[in-house]
Design a protein that fits this description.
By secondary structure, this protein is of the alpha/beta class. It has one domain: Beta-carbonic Anhydrase, Chain A (3-Layer(aba) Sandwich), CATH 3.40.1050.10. It has 9 helices and 7 strands. The strands form 2 sheets. The protein has a 5-stranded mixed sheet with strand order 4-3-5-6-7, sandwiched between helices. Helix 4 links the parallel strand 3 and strand 4. The longest helix is centred in the last third of the chain and has 19 residues. The radius of gyration is 19 Å and the shape is globular. The N terminus and C terminus are likely disordered. This is Carbonic anhydrase. Catalyzes the reversible hydration of carbon dioxide to form bicarbonate. Its EC number is 4.2.1.1.
C-alpha cells in the first residue's frame, strides 16, 4: 500500500517490521545498550525469535546495526544484545580484523539495507591480540593464514606501545579504536554516510565475565553518550 506524497509520486508505506526498526544512529545505539543491559541483569526478552518474526523477515531484512565483531565463541551478538532475527547484520573475524570482504559487507549493509549504525565489537583477553604481542616479542609470525591476522593487528599493537599501553585489555581498547578508524579510512562510502549523518560508527569492548559492553570510540564523538531510557518492563530495584 502507498499514499501520494507532496511531489505527487506514490510513497511506499513502511511495513510493520520496518516501522519498529531504529533508523537513526543514536536510536540504534540506545537499543543495543538497552538489550545488553537486559542481558547483564538476567532479564532478557529474546525479541524477534519466534515463528512470526521468521515469516516477517523472510522476504527482506532491515537490520538496525552492523556488528563487526571478533569471532570468539563467547561473543554471540544476538545473545549479548538480546536481539533476534533480522535485527543485526553480523560480520566476524578473529580480532575483528577488517579486510576487503569485511569492508564490502559493511558497505552493503549501510548503503543497500540502510543500516544506521556500525559497531566494532572487541573483548577483554582477546586471543588475536595476545598472539600478536607474542609474535612481536619473539619475532616469530604464526604459520598459515594466522600470520595475516597478526599482520592486521600489529599496527594497533605498535600504536599502543607508542602510547605506553602494555596490558592486554588496554591494547584491545587501542585495537578497537584503530579498527573504527580503519573502517572509515578504507571505506569512503562509509565515511560519506557518516558525514551525511545517516550512519555512525562506535567501538565497544565486551567484558567476558561481566557480560557488559562499554564504549571505547565513536564517530561522531557524542554518540556513545546518548542516554538510554529506563526499561519500563524491568523489575523495580529492591
Amino acid at each position: 500500500m502507498s499514499h501520494t506524497g507532496t511531489s505527487g509520486q506514490p510513497v511506499p508505506q513502511r511495513t510493520a517490521e520496518q516501522a519498529t526498526t531504529p533508523r537513526e544512529p543514536a536510536q540504534a545505539y540506545a537499543e543495543l545498550v538497552a538489550g545488553n543491559r537486559r542481558f547483564v541483569d538476567g532479564t532478557p526478552r529474546h525479541p524477534n525469535q519466534d515463528a512470526g518474526r521468521r515469516a516477517a523477515v523472510a522476504d527482506g531484512q532491515h537490520p538496525f546495526a552492523v556488528i563487526v565483531g571478533c569471532s570468539d565463541s563467547r561473543l554471540a551478538a544476538e545473545i549479548i544484545f538480546d536481539r533476534g532475527l533480522g535485527d543485526l547484520f553480523v560480520v566476524r573475524t578473529a580480532g575483528h580484523t577488517a579486510g576487503p570482504e569485511v569492508l564490502g559487507s559493511v558497505e552493503y549493509a549501510v548503503t543497500v539495507l540502510g543500516t544506521p549504525l556500525v559497531v566494532v565489537l572487541g573483548h577483554d583477553s582477546c586471543g588475536a591480540v595476545q598472539a600478536t604481542r607474542a609474535a612481536s616479542t619473539t619475532g616469530s609470525i604464526p604459520g598459515g593464514h594466522l600470520g595475516a591476522v597478526v599482520d592486521a593487528v600489529l599496527p594497533s599493537l605498535r600504536r599502543a606501545q607508542a602510547q605506553g599501553v602494555d596490558d592486554i585489555d588496554g591494547i584491545v581498547d587501542v585495537h578497537i579504536a584503530q579498527t573504527v578508524e580503519t573502517l572509515l579510512e578504507q571505506s569512503p562510502v562509509l565515511a560519506d554516510e557518516v558525514a551525511q549523518g545517516r550512519c555512525a560508527v562506535v567501538g565497544l569492548s565486551y567484558r567476558l565475565a561481566a557480560g557488559v559492553v562499554r564504549p571505547v570510540a565513536a564517530v561522531p564523538a557524542g554518540l556513545a553518550t546518548v542516554e538510554v531510557p529506563t526499561d519500563p518492563a524491568a523489575p523495580a530495584a529492591a
